[in-house]
Write the structure tokens for this entry.
Amino acid sequence: MLSCQLHNGTNMARPETLGNQSLMEAGERPLERSLSEPGDVKTSFVTREGMYRLMTLSEYSRPNRVTYQPQGQTPPQVNVSLVSLGGEEGDRICFNHGRELYVYVYKGIKKAADLNKPLEKKIYKGTNPTCHAFNEASANGDSVALLIGFSTGQIQLIDPVKKELSKLFNEERLIDKSKVTCLQWVPGSKSLFIAAHASGQFYVYNEELPCGSTSPHYQPFKAGENFSVHTCKTKSTRNPLFRWYLGTGAAINQLSFSPDGLHLAVVTQDGLLRVFQYDNMELLGTARSYFGGLLCVAWSGDGRLIAVGGEDDLVTVYSNEQKRVIARGQGHRSWVAAVAFDCHLEGESCYRIGSVGHDTQLCLWELPEDNLVPPRPRVKRRSDPLQLVGTPACPRLDECPMLEPLVCKKIAHERLTSLIFRPDCFITSCQDGYVYTWARPSRPNNSLA
């Protein structure tokens, strides 16, 4: 049985001002106030390519819904995972809410969701599912490997199709006792995965290996600037294969592999983005939030850009080639919970980025190619050695292009927590456990041109 307690992260100080309103005021606006501000929830909106519409028949949630009552704890963020099986097999969707986890056949915009027939329904005792991930490399119509991380540190591997597979990792919490914050399968691998924790560490597992019956003893493997990598000191190979420790021990909030699988971007509660060469374990670059923790991270389809969002209410875009912040987006009025590039819109002159936040708003941004051109050298200012404001990793507001949102719409009554772009739609989730599908404009060519 999975059981134990929840661990929390920490916050940072907040410097300087944003326009005429202090960042302290902008960042500390109570959630209740932002949610109660006037404005109808939108079910459609128009962009240059046409009208996006909420598909009410494609709404996913728990069957026979009743209000979830957390027992003295803030419920985990509602997350969504998807995997495409190809052909007539369709897709699978997984989402968590409170102590519950559901897996359904995802029918997209063409067919209504059948909430009475989940492929998998699990209700856990003494712990909450916090994150999950399908293995795209091994998924097919007969088998789908799904990892589930928990607030008490354990990791479960199940197959909601075969029903036979069920493994537990870190079962006795000998590897890490803190909340699992993010799970990622190593691209192209059918057995290797990464588990990130609120302890500021992430671990590489092989699902075919045991974890051992005693606490692992580690030996140094590699060290770099404010990070270190260790392996288990043991006669026989066991999990974890590697333990990565980042900086000061601030919680790892999310990590993401680049499209080619070579680079790993990690965001943490101390406000840092770190970009690693994964196989060589080399730190390639860093950036930081204007203040507060970074909560989410995403890569552009070509791997040139990384978008992050967090407690500074901003969307920040980092150039992986130039190793600097190249733009910020100001439009959210509370924390940015999820960010994603819309790689299904083909455009020659700009990138499309989406973000959702605790302010219940969806923002769409367009980043012109001009922003990718390195700026002319500027007179160097004395930088703050603590916050690094005024450096390429965190330029001052007058040193960085500030993007205005193309679209900024209230689309939910509760905090928005997930955003996934797909060829014919995009998907959002909010904290009350609803998963929404938005159909793209019905045009033969969805283009930014």
